[in-house]
């Protein structure tokens, strides 16, 4: 599931990690992209690019790693936070630790299952839960073209619970600009 970096257990701070979590298809990447575009010029806010053991594609801006490279980086302690979900490895890179150590706010697409490890690894964590009705989630997942039918249903059946109520919940079932502005406004207020 999730794990903090075992090499350096000291909590990272004084900055803030904002984990944007929620089910597949909720629109986390879309809302993060909206906020990034509307918070240009804010040097105190950074947006993380995850490392994922999946080839890069047009649906997500991530750094692709194969399983061997992911395991190597994990063993070296390069990831301040990493987890497994949906058969893939996910991680935040060393630049996240550097930005948080410099006192910045770092916004990252995360996993609900990784929240406890994030709270153990970072001195300050805020959780934004993005969600949508089940039919909207299924339609969005199918539209990506990575999965269909039973795979979509299986993905939606995996719903890890949060360890505590989120700091903000956004129901993303309308225009992306509306939900995106909720995230951007929240980040402006931090």
From TrEMBL:
Q: Quote the function comment for this protein.
A: Catalyzes the phosphorylation of ribose 1,5-bisphosphate to 5-phospho-D-ribosyl alpha-1-diphosphate (PRPP).
Catalysed conversion reaction: alpha-D-ribose 1,5-bisphosphate + ATP = 5-phospho-alpha-D-ribose 1-diphosphate + ADP
The pathway to which it is assigned is: Metabolic intermediate biosynthesis; 5-phospho-alpha-D-ribose 1-diphosphate biosynthesis; 5-phospho-alpha-D-ribose 1-diphosphate from D-ribose 5-phosphate (route II): step 3/3
UniProt keyword list:
ATP-binding, Kinase, Nucleotide-binding, Transferase
What's the name of the protein? Ribose 1,5-bisphosphate phosphokinase PhnN
Secretion signal span: none
The Gene Ontology terms for molecular function here are: ATP binding; ribose 1,5-bisphosphate phosphokinase activity
Native source species: Starkeya nomas
Binding positions for ATP?
22-29
Protein family according to the UniProt entry = Belongs to the ribose 1,5-bisphosphokinase family.
């Amino acid at each position: 599931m999730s794990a903090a970096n075992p090499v350096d257990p000291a909590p990272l701070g004084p900055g803030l990690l904002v984990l944007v979590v929620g089910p597949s298809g909720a629109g986390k990447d879309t809302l993060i992209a909206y906020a990034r575009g509307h918070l240009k010029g804010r040097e105190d806010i950074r947006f993380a690019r995850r490392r994922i053991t999946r080839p890069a594609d047009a649906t997500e801006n991530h750094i692709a790693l194969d399983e061997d490279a992911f395991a190597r980086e994990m063993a070296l302690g390069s990831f301040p936070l990493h987890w497994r979900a949906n058969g893939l490895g996910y991680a935040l890179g060393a630049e996240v630790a550097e930005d948080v150590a410099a006192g910045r706010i770092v916004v990252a697409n995360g996993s609900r299952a990784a929240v406890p490890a994030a709270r153990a690894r970072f001195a300050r964590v805020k959780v934004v839960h993005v969600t949508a009705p089940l039919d909207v989630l299924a339609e969005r997942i199918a539209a990506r073209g990575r999965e269909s039918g039973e795979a979509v249903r299986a993905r939606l059946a995996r719903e890890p619970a949060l360890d505590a109520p989120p700091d903000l919940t956004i129901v993303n079932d309308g225009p992306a600009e509306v939900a995106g502005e909720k995230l951007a406004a929240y980040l402006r207020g931090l």
